[in-house]
Amino acid sequence: MTTHNTLIVPAFDFVQGDSPILVSMPHSGLNLTAEVQAGLTDQAKKLPDTDWFIPELYEFLEPLGVGFIKANYSRYVIDLNRPYDDKPLYTTKTTGLFPDILFEDSPVFVDGKAPTDEHKAFCKDHIWKPYHDTIEKELARLKAKFGYVILFDAHSIAAEVPMLFDGTLPDFNWGTNEGKSCDQALANVVTQVLRPNYTQILNGRFKGGYITRHFGQPESHIHAIQLELSQATYLNDELAKQSVYQLDEMKLPFIQQQLREVIEACQHLSL
């Protein structure tokens, strides 16, 4: 039986800025296609692996004149931070272009109800390609205007994910593909602006996904860096343990101010 593929909302939202920075939010989407929604397990329906509230955390971007692109569909529909050909990015256990396991190592889909190849092809052409094409065009525009451009790939993840890593993550996990995706000056400025009450690591468990690795070409004055932010810095911890995701209003102003200072530091950097 052929499934009629449609998108209920646009693949992404894009706001053009007037600064040499573009912020990408590939995992913040909450929408599902009908075919994906019909096949999800009860646990997957809670969308536990979402980069929760990333647009809210970065709501200061537009007033600063910084452009951003924000995915509208869940990574369970298609993971925008994986390559089009789905070649593995990591030697350790991970999820692919079309995730079939949750970070807790249980199935995304009920047995026999995973999306069809036709649906996957549709998502590649109507979600993945437009998202990446928009990034490419905007980076080219900003580079032509400013002489260089910074792609800031904004993510978040639970502080503890045993399937992916041991122990507890630092608060800020910076990735520059071991220094290959940006000039060292960018890594220096984002790590130096962080306040001492937040912990951080550069190129630890998270070194940058496909977006950072693909677009980061410092030799061509295109600099990319990924931030994997621990959700312990802004979510209500007790509710998160119950797969209920809410902002912690006590933590929120502090993390927003810190993120704003990071972006402003990038704005003042000339590469």
Describe what this molecule looks like in 3D.
This protein is of the alpha/beta class. Helix 5 packs antiparallel against helix 8 (252-267). The model has no long low-confidence stretch (mean pLDDT 95). The chain starts with 11 loop residues before the first strand and ends with a helix. It has helices at residues 34-39, 54-57, 61-64, 117-146, 184-192, 210-215, 237-240, 252-267, and strands at residues 12-15, 21-25, 67-71, 149-157, 172-175, 200-202, 222-230. The protein has one domain (12-267): Zn-dependent exopeptidases (Aminopeptidase). The protein contains 8 helices and 7 strands. Helix 5 (184-192) links the parallel strand 5 and strand 6 (200-202). Strands 1-3-2-4-7-5-6 form a 7-stranded mixed beta sheet, with helices on both faces.
Describe the structure using short key phrases.
271 residues, alpha/beta, Aminopeptidase, seven-stranded mixed beta sheet, 7 strands, globular
Quick synopsis:
The protein is built from 8 helices and 7 strands; from the N terminus they run ββαααβαββαβαβαα. It is of the alpha/beta class and 271 residues long.
What does the average pLDDT come to? Answer: 95
* Category from helices, strands and their pairing: alpha/beta
Q: Can you list the strand order of the major beta sheet?
A: 1-3-2-4-7-5-6
Looking at the overall shape, the CATH architecture is 3-Layer(aba) Sandwich
Low-pLDDT ranges: none
Strand content: 5-15%
CATH class: Alpha Beta
Instruction: Please provide the ordered H/E string of secondary-structure elements.
Output: EEHHHEHEEHEHEHH
Note the main sheet: 7 strands, mixed
Tertiary shape: globular
**Range of helix content:** 25-40%
The CATH homology group name = Zn-dependent exopeptidases
Number of domains: 1
Annotation, overall tally of beta strands: 7
Return the CATH topology.
Answer: Aminopeptidase
Rg result: 18 Å
Discrete helix count:
8
